[in-house]
Amino acid sequence: MHLPEILPWGVPYGEGFGKQMLLILVAVALIAWFFVAASRRRELVPGKLQYLGEMSYNFVRNSVGKDIIGEHDYKPYVPLLFSLFFFILVNNLFGSIPLLQLPTPSHVGTAYALAGMVYITWIVLGIKKHGIGYFKLAVVPSGVPKAILPLVVVIEIISTFLVRPVTHSLRLFATMLAGHLIIMLAAAGSEFLLLHGEGLIKPLGVLTIAGGVGMYLFEILIQVLQAYVFTLLTAIYIQGSLAESH
Amino acid sequence: MKQTIILAATEGANPLIPNVWEILVTLLGFAVLMFIVVKYVVPAFEKTYAERTEAIEGGIAKAEAAQAEASAALDEYKQQLLDARTEANRIREDARAEGAQILAELKEKAAAEAARISEQAQAQIAAERQAAVTSLRSEVGVLATELASKIVGESLNDDARAARVVDRFLADLESQSAGAAK
């Protein structure tokens, strides 16, 4: 169920600027405000806000960037990974904030945009690093017998250049949409059973409420996890582009 | 409510078909975020880290410098102690050598002195002997004359004859001793 758009006011969904897009901009504003405020003081012994900011930054910088891409050349990609993680995290968590209740990546356009951007990024990085020979490097694995090499190359092309961006975007989109639907279904179902149910069916609404609350908590975990997975995969793709061999 | 649920169900759009506006807004929003992160957030955090690292490593470097200085001073003191010890040994050695030399000199001097004294004594003895011989020579004459006159009686009282006899006797003696000396 989609609300009508905000700009132009009240036009049907899909024809203008709506709630989902507003939330994206709100997320950007929130993240930027928080981290600019946290990083501005630059004290050697951090205060609470700075500490929280540093801890968050450190998490992406070290356990995603440094560990995956490698100590030597992870630095240039920290901003991208950091922005991606918190952009997705906050947008996902909007799905669990009452009244907002919309994980923006559950609209596939957002997931496509992010995954597409990452797709272009790692291909460009690979070409920059290895020249046009990058494509050979990416699809021809070393140490494979000549007989099955063509088959392997075809599989590699499909899995790396076709399937990878699709799974990268759909994983995020599908988990968010599914969670969103489950919460909505539980809420709508409970409302229907309790208010419109007849006879013995009515009390079943209590069960659906309990289940809905459980799913709600579970959904928070999924939202954090998917932000992490998306960022981790981005780091792995970048590392793959920079690596010397397949 | 039933109406809206049914409406939602019949909306029927394929969820895999993106809304172009969503793509645009996502890209725009993300670009803005990236810009702020690249421009402000990452440099600030990295600078803080660098400063912190420098503060810690600077402290370590300072401590290392102090330690190096201390160990250099210790080495210097040890060297000085060694020098002093060597110097003392050298002085002791010199003193010993000097002592030995002084002792040797003294010994030599003493020996020379002893030699000189004994030589002197010998010369004196020789002189005394000569004197004794000389005095004996005259006395022996008298004594012998006396003895002879006692033996021969009063016959030899004549002085002139006695003197001639004594002279002849002495001359014999002389020639005898000269022959012996030759």
Automatic annotation (TrEMBL), chain B:
Q: Which GO terms describe its molecular function?
A: proton-transporting ATP synthase activity, rotational mechanism; proton-transporting ATPase activity, rotational mechanism
Q: Carries keyword Cell membrane?
A: yes
Compartment(s) of residence: Cell membrane
Q: Where are the transmembrane segments?
A: 20-42
Does the keyword Transmembrane feature in the UniProt annotation? yes
Membrane topology according to the record: Single-pass membrane protein
Q: Which domain of life is it from?
A: Bacteria
Enumerate the Pfam families for this protein.
ATP-synt_B
Report the SUPFAM superfamilies cross-referenced here.
Answer: F1F0 ATP synthase subunit B, membrane domain (SSF81573)
Which Gene3D superfamilies does the UniProt entry name for this protein? Answer: F1F0 ATP synthase subunit B, membrane domain (1.20.5.620)
Q: Name one GO cellular component term.
A: proton-transporting ATP synthase complex
Q: Which UniProt keywords apply?
A: ATP synthesis, Cell membrane, CF(0), Coiled coil, Hydrogen ion transport, Ion transport, Membrane, Transmembrane, Transmembrane helix, Transport
Coiled-coil portions: 60-123
PANTHER family (UniProt xref): ATP SYNTHASE SUBUNIT B (PTHR33445:SF1), ATP SYNTHASE SUBUNIT B', CHLOROPLASTIC (PTHR33445)
What NCBIfam families does this protein's entry cite? ATP_synt_b, PRK05759.1-3
Can you state the subunit structure given in the record? F-type ATPases have 2 components, F(1) - the catalytic core - and F(0) - the membrane proton channel. F(1) has five subunits: alpha(3), beta(3), gamma(1), delta(1), epsilon(1). F(0) has three main subunits: a(1), b(2) and c(10-14). The alpha and beta chains form an alternating ring which encloses part of the gamma chain. F(1) is attached to F(0) by a central stalk formed by the gamma and epsilon chains, while a peripheral stalk is formed by the delta and b chains.
Q: What family does the database annotate? A: Belongs to the ATPase B chain family.
State the protein's purpose: F(1)F(0) ATP synthase produces ATP from ADP in the presence of a proton or sodium gradient. F-type ATPases consist of two structural domains, F(1) containing the extramembraneous catalytic core and F(0) containing the membrane proton channel, linked together by a central stalk and a peripheral stalk. During catalysis, ATP synthesis in the catalytic domain of F(1) is coupled via a rotary mechanism of the central stalk subunits to proton translocation.
Q: What is the designated name of this protein?
A: ATP synthase subunit b
- Which organism's genome codes for this protein? Arthrobacter mobilis
